[in-house]
Amino acid sequence: MDKLDCIRTFTRVVQLGSFTAVANTQNITQGSVSKKVSWLEQHLSISLLHRTSRQLSLTDAGEAYFQHALRLLEDHDSFEANLKGEQFKAKGRLALSMPTSLGLHLLAKPIADFIALHPDVDIDLSLNDQHIDLYRDNIDIAFRASLLKDSGLKAKHLIDNTMVYCASPNYLKRKGLPRHASELTKHHCLTYSLAHPSNVWNFINRDGKSEKVSLSEHFRSDSPEMLLKMATLGQGITFLPQWMVSPFEKTGELVEVLTDYRQQTIPLYAVYKNSQTQPYRIRAFIDFIAGKLEAEGC
């Protein structure tokens, strides 16, 4: 057995929580993963994992060895990267994950500009509005528009998304212009199903008082793109980032409503794995995107 390969497999098992998950991500059998961890335990003459039918957990010795293994692999990978020149030049595969609308509307051009500047970087981009696991899905950088929970990941704040309520002139002509948040109960609302709860919108008036409104969800979707499209087709009022709405305001297809309330913002972060050493391509990409968004005044 290759000891380093067994150590790497052991750390992935801990990070992903099961032999099966590692087998799926590496396209090998579960038995192969188990053999590598068992070999490492026999080599060390210690038990690294408690195994039950439902879950795996680290032994005390396993916890200590896991932390040691992470440092060992980071030093090893960093040394090899230095030999290859990867610490000083952006090159290699860069796996990204971001919400669909963010990629299509805001980041497509900056990504293209980055590729032009760094032709030795190969981009593997997943557009997905679901919350992904960077370790399980082997993602280098994920973009998240939300308040972050403590996840053990590193994060760089990029921008604050200004959110707006909007509808088509056609819809407002039919249903009337809402002046107060409470009037939304009489309107068709187009809501984002991945928000929790999706049927409640929060407002803050100019005096700083908050108000929650329970909505009639006339149309619900996990795609902001679809919410935008349905709003332009006159199906109701929706709540979206201003950078999505602005082009349609300029054409007159959408107008903002409930503008007497304070604008709300949702922070956008680039999150990445908590490692002491990072390939230069990861740092270079995050810094490049941050600079582009700042230059564009987003």
Task: List the defining traits of the structure above.
298 residues, alpha/beta, 9-stranded mixed β-sheet, two-stranded antiparallel ribbon, 9 helices, 25% strand, elongated
Output the radius of gyration: 24 Å
Number of helices: 9
What share of residues is helical?
Answer: 40-55%
What string gives the helices and strands in order? HHHEEHEHEEEHEEEEHEHEEH
| Overall average pLDDT | 88
Task: Please specify the SSE layout and strand pairing.
Blueprint: H1 3-16, H2 19-26, H3 30-44, E1 49-51, E2 56-58, H4 60-84, E3 92-98, H5 100-117, E4 121-127, E5 141-145, E6 154-167, H6 169-175, E7 189-192, E8 200-204, E9 210-214, E10 217-221, H7 224-232, E11 237-241, H8 242-250, E12 255-257, E13 264-272, H9 280-295
Parallel strand pairs: 3-4, 3-5, 7-10, 7-11
Antiparallel strand pairs: 1-2, 5-13, 6-11, 6-12, 6-13, 8-9
Helix pairs in contact: 1-3, 1-4, 2-3, 5-9
Can you tell me about this structure?
The chain is of the alpha/beta class. It has 9 helices and 13 strands. Strands 3, 4, 5, 6, 7, 10, 11, 12 and 13 form a 9-stranded mixed beta sheet that branches. Helix 1 crosses helix 3 (30-44) and helix 5 crosses helix 9. It starts with a helix and ends with a helix. The model has no long low-confidence stretch (mean pLDDT 88).
